Amino acid sequence: MPDLFIPKEEKITPAQEPTPPPVAEPTRPITHLSTSRVLPFSTYTEKPTNISFTTQESDEEILLFMRPHFITNITWILTTLVLFLIPPVVITLFGLASNLFPFSLSDIPTNYLLVFLLFYYLISFTFMFSHYLTWFYNIGIVTQKRIIDIDYRDIIYHNVAMTKLNLVEDVNYTQGGFAASLFNFGDIFVQTAGETKHFDFYSVPKPARTTSIIEDHIGGRRHV
Amino acid sequence: MFDTFSLWTFVKFSLAILIGGYSIFTIVLITQVRTMNRIIQQSFASLLMVFIALFLFVTSVVLLIATLVFL
Q1: What's the pTM value of the predicted model, to 2 decimals?
Q2: Going by fewer Cβ within 10 Å, which terminus of chain B is more open, N or C?
Q3: What is the ipTM score, two decimals?
Q4: What letter does residue A73 receive in the DSSP assignment?
Q5: Given B35, B44, B67, which is nearest A115 (Cβ)?
Q6: Tens of pLDDT along A106-153?
Q7: Residue B52, Cβ neighbours under 10 Å: how many?
């Protein structure tokens, strides 16, 4: 019995083979990084030359070094200034209006007054130093392989978290408020697929540029 | 006279206890700074932080001795 329908065999020529859809080339240029040194008051350094961390691999290069913007320290700096000014103000007040107080500073032995003043200034200096350390050791590091978040709080607490860049799913930043807009700093949020879901860097300078640099390295565009 | 003597003795030992407590705190501070410096090495700045923490400890010890001996 003859076939009623015989499909024609289509010969696929090499020219007709289905081609994969073209991959869209990134339109945003890769952020260029310049080498610089980290100083005691540095808040944002690209490719720092004088810094390393404990688990750094031999072929691992630091791309970004971040701390909170220095303007975020203004509260404790002003508090320290007030603490340093209290003794001279009190002594002056006692001198100018001694009749207003029930006792005079001359009633206190000089030795005691001296030791008390020295101890007071030691405590004030320690207040300043401990706040400086809290700022100094709150660090975010981006290498070409991973992101490291070092948190240091209340002298006795520190936390070190790191994630590989291929585990990073999303990176975004927020910049809000008068000071943040004026001094160009903001909060960067890195979302990962790892154990630590969120890497948050608060009050980091140049958040747009930082986000852009991290983005350059999470999407396979690893040319710096 | 006895009351005045007691008052200043009380002040002296209170100060000594406070400064002693502060000395212990500075030891914790030195330990923490050294730990953080091991995690992140920042060359000169790291050294400076240890130096300042040590300075605070030495000053507190000197002040403690001065309190106990000279007051």
Answers
A1: 0.83
A2: N
A3: 0.91
A4: G
A5: B67
A6: 888 888 999 999 999 999 999 999 999 999 999 999 999 999 999 998
A7: 18
